[in-house]
Amino acid sequence: MIVLGVDPGLTRCGVGVVDASPGQQPRLVHVAVIRTPADDPLERRLLAIDTALSDVVDGFTPDAIAVERVFSQHNLRSVMGTAQVAGLVLLAAARRGIPVGMHTPTEVKAAVTGSGRADKAQVTTMVTKLLRLDTRPHPADAADALALALCHGWQAPMRARLAAAL
Description:
The chain is α/β, with parallel strands linked by helices.
């Protein structure tokens, strides 16, 4: 099961593709950070992210896409940019008929570290270990995207078993 995880952000948008096939060691397929200049007009930044995101989706044809659920932050401007990028992810998935899972940061942290209160360094350390990487994904947006993909990949079989039982 190929899962694309997206940590949405207007300045830095983490994208991570993981092979999370059931019964297999999870494997890194691709990781990157899409960056846009803060002084570019919003519409140009969104277009650049959409174009780069489309390249990743079309290039790796994921079975599912996991995106961080936007939550309320103190900085309204920051949360608006995050929500706009999350919308691009949802649109890219819908255009291609790819199922989407939205996960809270607490849910993702708990899935990869065992604690919903883990900090970014702990998440990065666990992602590095789980995927048996030689180097730590950097910046944190890249590690967060991989953590999202791992979380979704592990939860998808459980959701399928639940649905079959109902």
